[in-house]
Amino acid sequence: MDLLKRKSTNWYKRTARAPWSSGLVRGSCFAVAGLLYLKVWLPATRLAVPCVFHGVTGFYCPGCGLTRALQAYLQLDAWQAFRFNLLVPLLLPLYAAYALAVRAKRKRTGHALMAAMLAMTIAFGVLRNFPSFAWLAPNSQ
User: Fold this and answer.
1) pTM for the whole structure
2) Which of 2, 77, 121, 125 lies 20 to 30 Å from 59, alpha-carbon distance?
């Protein structure tokens, strides 16, 4: 009786997973959509998404210049990408370390890395608006 009950209540585990439920498939679709936006839509239309924060306040947010930086990375122009937004290459190694810490189930290390990334992002967003740190502001081409 126990075997029959176990088989009848676990039917959902035997059903086929939807092909879109895979994280790899969803991530690949997201990456392709991003590439199409950066390589096809923007050059053809010159209609980029404006920064609402910069439009309202006049200050640069930590993400200002990110789209132009990603376009520069796609053209393999790392120097220009650094000039647009320096935060991305600084955060990528920390994010990789965070992902490894989470995968290894090291909560304390993961929390410390997340706190460091958050502090860096806030500091970057604040400092790039001071005249003495104008080199952090996104440069125009």
Assistant:
1) 0.71
2) 77
Residue of 93, 96, 88 lying closest to 68 (CA atoms) = 88
Residues in the chain: 141
- Amino acid in position 42: L
Q: pLDDT digit string (tens) for 83-128? A: 999 998 899 899 999 999 999 999 999 999 999 999 999 999 999 9
Q: E strands along the chain, which residues?
A: none
Q: Is the dihedral of CA 9, 10, 12, 16 positive or negative?
A: negative
Q: How far apart are CA 110 and CA 91, in angstroms?
A: 14
Question: Domain-by-domain residue ranges, the chain?
Answer: 23-136
Q: Two tokens at 34?
A: 């991003």
Place of tokens 């967003």: 125
